[in-house]
Amino acid sequence: MKICRFNDDRLGIVQDNQVYDITAIRDQVLRGQSTDGWADPVIAHLPELVKLIGDVRKLRDPVPLASVRLLSPVKRPSKLVAAPTNYRAHISEMQKVSANNTVRRSPDIGEAGMFLKATSALIGPSEGIRLRFPERRNDHEVELALVIGKTANQVGQENALDYVAGYCIGLDITLRGPEDRSFRKSIDTYAVLGPWLVTADEIPDPDNLQLKLGVNNELHQDANTKDMVYSIRRLIEFSSAFYTLHPGDVIYTGTPSGVAPIRPGDTLIAEIEKIGRMEVAVKSA
Fold it and tell me: What is the per-residue pLDDT across 69-104, written as a single tens digit (0 to 9) for each?
């Protein structure tokens, strides 16, 4: 099932390039429900929501997907957790960049650990990236993003996928420079999530998905999640060893090689197998 947030915080199901509005069902599920203050309410109650939806084809009056404004499918995560240097080819690529610029070289993920992006950086694909510091290098990074579905604390790899609500396409936009990584990656609009959340039951093997990113129809990144240093299960185990992960928390799983500068006027076209495709405009701040 593909679940999207659109327009003025409405909730929908995407099927056959149509959006079926389920906002009333969402409101029914959440009415009177108490939710952990750290959790995104919709993600925390996703099983009840899915159960009530049933056959989406019975819902009335869908609207064309092309006519809606897509927001981040998660409205209120407590944190955005991200994996650095999780593809070998990208590690080599960034070693070359750091040799020629005032960019800190990143150690391997096991040494560097995870990092956090500010939740205020989170946007949906229709909102557009607004570049700050245009005189400096701002890079695109396409990533598989997973959304935590239930509270996870010190979870082992053997049952890590039980804690996943679903998957999205993520863009981790990055300002290059000498500052701390989280500072440079937490600029407003520098965390894109979308175009919708695909529920975990539709992606039984997240460690074998093709992902691509093009800029103005020129392919820049093309890889498979099987090439990750830390698998999806290992990333959940690693993150939950340090943080309690709450429903709605997002893990950006790292980017492959091919990162490159972006500029106002560019259009980023990101695709991940079994999830879909999204176009994101790059604008001036």
Answer: 999 999 999 999 999 999 977 566 665 555 556 555
Contact of 163 with 150, CB cutoff 8 Å: yes
Cα-flanking dihedrals φ and ψ of residue 109, to 5°? -60, -35
What is the per-residue pLDDT for 95? 57
Which two tokens mark 22? Answer: 């389920």
Residue range 62-69: mean pLDDT, rounded: 97
138 closest CA partner among 173, 98, 96, 106: 173
Distance CA 190, CA 177 (A): 15
Q: Do residues 46 and 118 both lie within one domain? A: no
Q: What is the CA radius of gyration of the chain?
A: 18
Q: What is the pLDDT of residue 217?
A: 87
**Contact, 226 vs 87, CB < 8 A?**
no
Same domain, 127 and 239: yes
pLDDT at 224: 98
Closest Cα to residue 254, out of 106, 130, 119, 76?
Answer: 106
Residue 75 domain-assigned (yes or no): no
Question: What integer best gives the mean pLDDT of the chain?
Answer: 93
Report the number of distinct structural domains present in the chain: 2
On whether both 128 and 222 belong to a single domain, the answer is yes
Residue 195 lies in a domain: yes
